[in-house]
Amino acid sequence: MALIRRAAAADLDAVLAIEGSWKTTPHWSRRQFEAELKSPRSIFVVAEADLAVLAYAAAWVVVDEAQVLSVAVHPGALRRGLARKTLNGLLDEALKSGCRKATLEVSETNEGARRLYESMGFAAVGKRPGFYPDGTAAILMDKVL
């Protein structure tokens, strides 16, 4: 059973290990994660189990909207429901912060993530061609909280 909690500076090595384990680009730097910890508009949570950080998610609060920036799970902890649980924890924190809607972008080639988001009530509302550095388009999705 994973505990979802706000991220702390002590979590950054584990978060960076998760971030670096995926071949996606661009990767966030330690400095970017540190900025998220300090920003009053940021929501940054981790999933912890057996004293290990296994997933994280981050969002910005923009007025009454949570803009989901990143969701990632350690490759050794896949298929345990951690992405769903971590994102739900992030959205719970967004609601507490006054958000009424959540938005995100997902690569059109990341079918697993798209299925997860759809199963959680996100709907495709647009597309950004060439959004990612490799030229892949982003599918824009949103959800009423």
Record the SSE blueprint.
Elements: E1 3-6, H1 12-20, H2 30-38, E2 42-49, E3 52-62, E4 65-73, H3 82-96, E5 101-107, H4 111-119, E6 123-128, E7 138-144
Parallel strand pairs: 4-5
Antiparallel strand pairs: 1-2, 2-3, 3-4, 5-7, 6-7
Q: How is this structure best summarized?
A:
With 145 residues, the protein is an alpha+beta fold. 29% of the residues lie in helices and 36% in strands.
According to CATH, what is the class of the domain at 3-102?
Answer: Alpha Beta
Question: What would you report as the Rg, rounded to the nearest angstrom?
Answer: 14 Å
Cα-to-Cα separation, first versus last residue: 24 Å
Fourth-level CATH superfamily of the domain at 3-102:
Gcn5-related N-acetyltransferase (GNAT)
How big a fraction of the residues is strand? 35-45%
Question: What is the total tally of β strands?
Answer: 7
The helix tally amounts to 4
Summarize the main sheet.
Answer: 7 strands, mixed
Give, in spatial order, the strands making up the sheet with the most strands. Answer: 1-2-3-4-5-7-6
As for the CATH topology of the domain at 3-102, it is: Aminopeptidase
- Contiguous low-pLDDT stretches (5 residues minimum) are none
